[in-house]
Structures are given as structure tokens and as C-alpha cells.
Amino acid sequence: MNLPLPFHRPSIGPDEEAAVLRVLRSGWLTHGPETAAFEREFAAYLGVPAALGVSSCTAGLELIFAALSLPPGREVITTPLTFAATVHVLVHRGLVPVLADIDPRTGGLDVASLARRLSDRTAAVLVVHFAGHLAVNSQLLDFCSAHRLILIEDCAHAIETRDLDGRAAGTFGQAAAFSFYPNKNITAAEGGMVVARDPALLERMRLLRTQGMVWPPDDGRTGFRPYDVIDSGYKLNLTDLQAALGRVQLGRVEGWLPRRQAVAARYRSVLAQVGGRLIEPPAGTRSAWHLAVAVVPLPDRQATEAYMERIQRRGVRLSWHYRPIHWLTAYRRIAGGDELPLCDELAACSFSLPLYPGLTDEEVGYVCSVLKAEW
Ligand SMILES: Cc1ncc(COP(=O)(O)O)c(C=O)c1O
User: Fold this and answer.
1) Cβ 93 vs Cβ 70: under 8 Å
2) What is the DSSP code string of 13-36?
3) Ligand 1 in contact with 234 (CB < 6 A)?
4) Going residue by residue through the chain (375 aa), what tens digit of pLDDT does each one get?
5) What distance in Å separates the CA atoms of residue 154 and residue 161, rounded to the nearest whole number?
6) Ligand 1 contacts CB of residue 86 (under 6 A)
7) Sheet with strand 277-278: strands edge to edge
8) CATH 3.90.1150.10 residue ranges for the chain
């Protein structure tokens, strides 16, 4: 076993290498047949008719809100327990992010707090399936439909996440974005995918993804056909090199999930021995187990950081998901940020443990022994 044990290690093998090499040698590097195949395969994996490859999950969220064209000044309720990108994309469009508190057991949005944040300016709810744990339930869906709110899903952590009936995260709202960043459950080096319930919304995103360009229908002529640009679009597409990598990884993701679950189970049992716990998915649902977030009985962030430091000195790299949005300099004065007691309490005493399919039993055993020894 080599120390330090990294917080994350992407699982890249000979199949990934061969796929990238195949594209390099094909002469077609971007936005071509590999991207189209990856889009079809990803859509099939989720059980939806179509998906669009994008350059990142952030790009996907930007594209969703660009396509929705909500009037500036409208409010979007979201979670403080997320990466800054979730909030940036709202600010970029002149929308007002409003934070609601979380359910500390699952890390998802707390519907009672969500209801308290509702105003006559609220246009949408942006949920994050934190750690891969399903963040929508019938209560949240009923709330959104009762108040005619658009529901968008940040699925950066949630590729394999399914509800009790096997329905995929990303299919509950109007649109969703997924991430293939290197630390995600599948990687394309960088990249993402978006899906939308309304085919017209997906088509609008397809247009905006690539400069707003359109081509005349194929009339049998050979070679160049003059394109038009019908909207001021963006450049947010996936490359074929990334898509080739992503396709191989997608083919492996179901095989990796039992390992993620098994590692989480070992962490659950050792944390119980020190009076701690994991943030867990709602009962009966299938989590992608993107993150193993430990919650320990320590009084404040300082004590938690000290415990983390002792663990890291023993060669186990840790992380923190997340320093809440309203604790960040850019968002200290964000709406709702002055009253999020459950999120504040959780953030004071949580940190993330290494969780990836390539972890060996010996490595997991070592992490568990260090967690106990340094408590
Ligand atoms: C919850 C969440 N949303 C969005 C993103 C952005 O993903 P990407 O790096 O693919 O843009 C991340 C990345 O870590 C994330 O964790």
C-alpha cells in the first residue's frame, strides 16, 4: 500500500487508452460520431429519449438557464450544501439565488425551509443530489407543482442515482446536468451531459450549445452547405476525445457501484464506533455513492479540522463537501444565508473520506484503523 492515499484516483485502464487513441487516429477530434454515440448511450442509461454532451456540468447548468430565459430578478431557491458552480450560473443570468436549509440526514433540501423561502418572485428550485443521494421526493415534487415552480436538477454526483421504482435522478424536473470531471463517478477528463423533459427545451439547448448555428437540410449536394446563425449562442460542446473516454467509463459504472457501496458500509460501521455517522440516502433509494461524508460528534469546525489533520498526517487524504455557499466570501450576503442552522451544524462537524472503486481492502482497512486511532 502506498501512502499518502489520495482522496481520489480515476479508474483509467487499457480500454480508455485504446478509445482515446482510436479517436486521435480517426482524424475527427470533436463534436462528431463519438459524441453522438455517447449522447445516445447516456440517454439510454437514464431511460430518456435524448441527451446533449457539454463541456462540463457547469456549462450544462449555464445552458439550461440560458435556454429557460427566466426574467432577471426572479428568484431560484437552492441549497447551501453544494459547489459554487450551482449558484454562479444563476448570478450570471441576473437571477437571485435564495438558500434554503438542508435535511442533515441526507444532505438534500428541507421542504419546510424551502416553503419558508417562497416569495412571489420565486421562479424555480435547483436541487442538488448531494453525494449521489436522491434529493427529490413526493413532498418536494408536490410543492413545486403546487406553486408552479420549474425544477432543475444538479446531477453532478448522481449518475447512478435511482428512486424506489428505478427512476433516474435527472428525470424528475424540467432539466438536469451531469458532470464527468475527473473526481466524478465516470470521467471524460472534463465534460457533462444535459437532459430535458420537453424536447423543445433540449433543442433550444442544442442550438445555444454551438454558436446558435443551423444548417440547411441535406439536399443531396456534395460538400459545403452554407450555415446560418439564428441566435447568439455559446461554445459549450463536448469533444470526441472526451466522449470516447466517457463511453468506456459509462460501460463500467454499474460494475463499480457495488464496490462504492461496500466501502461506504465499512466506513458506516467504523464511524458508529466513534459515535459518528455517514450522510445517508433516503430509505429504499439507490445512491450513486459519489461521496462518503462523515459526520462526527465534535463541537465545531476547529475541532473537526484538528481531527482531519491527525488523520491526514497518517497519510489519508480527506476533503470537505462542502464549505457551505454562505460561508464563501463571494456569497456571504446571499439571500437566506443568515438562517441555515441545520447546514451550519452539519458543516461544523463533517468531512469526506476517500471513496472510489479502485480502493483496495487493505486501503479501506487502513482508513478505518486511522479514523479510530486518531479519534
Ligand atoms: C454539485 C456540483 N455541481 C456542479 C459541479 C460542476 O461540475 P463541472 O466541474 O463538471 O463543471 C460540481 C463539481 O464538482 C458539483 O460538485
Assistant:
1) yes
2) -HHHHHHHHHHHHHT--BSSHHHH
3) no
4) 999 999 999 999 999 999 999 999 999 999 999 999 999 999 999 999 999 999 999 999 999 999 999 999 999 999 999 999 999 999 999 999 999 999 999 999 999 999 999 999 999 999 999 999 999 999 999 999 999 999 999 999 999 999 999 999 999 999 999 999 999 999 999 999 999 999 999 999 999 999 999 988 888 877 888 899 999 999 999 999 999 999 999 999 999 999 999 999 999 999 999 999 999 999 999 999 999 999 999 999 999 999 999 999 999 999 999 999 999 999 999 999 999 999 999 999 999 999 999 999 999 999 999 999 999
5) 12
6) yes
7) 277-278, 292-295, 350-353
8) 253-373
- Single-letter amino acid code for the residue at 185: N
Residue 165: closest CA among 288, 280, 289, 285? 285
Q: Whose CA is nearest to atom 16 of ligand 1?
A: 83
Is there a contact between 245 and 16 (Cβ–Cβ < 8 Å)? Answer: yes
Distance CA 271, CA 103 (A): 20
Q: CB within 8 A of 18, min separation 6: which ones? A: none
295-302 own/partner pairs: CB under 8 Å, 24+ apart: 295/104, 295/271, 295/346, 295/349, 295/350, 296/271, 296/349, 296/350, 296/351, 297/349, 298/348, 298/349, 299/348, 299/349, 300/348, 300/349, 301/347, 301/348, 301/349
- Give the nearest ligand 1 atom to 154 CA: 3
Where do you find CATH 3.40.640.10 in the chain?
14-249
Domain 14-249 part of CATH 3.40.640.10: yes
Residues 262 and 336: their CA atoms lie apart, in Å, by 37
CATH architecture of residue range(s) 253-373:
Alpha-Beta Complex (3.90)
| CA 177 / ligand 1 centre spacing (Å) | 9
Bridge partners of 124, per DSSP, are: 76, 150
Distance 84 CA to ligand 1 centre (A): 8
CA 20, CA 219: separation in Å to the nearest integer?
34
Tally of CB atoms within 10 A around 193:
29
Which DSSP letter does residue 73 get? Answer: T
Residue 325 and residue 332 in contact, taking contact as beta carbons nearer than 8 Å = no
356 lines ligand 1 (CB under 6 A): no
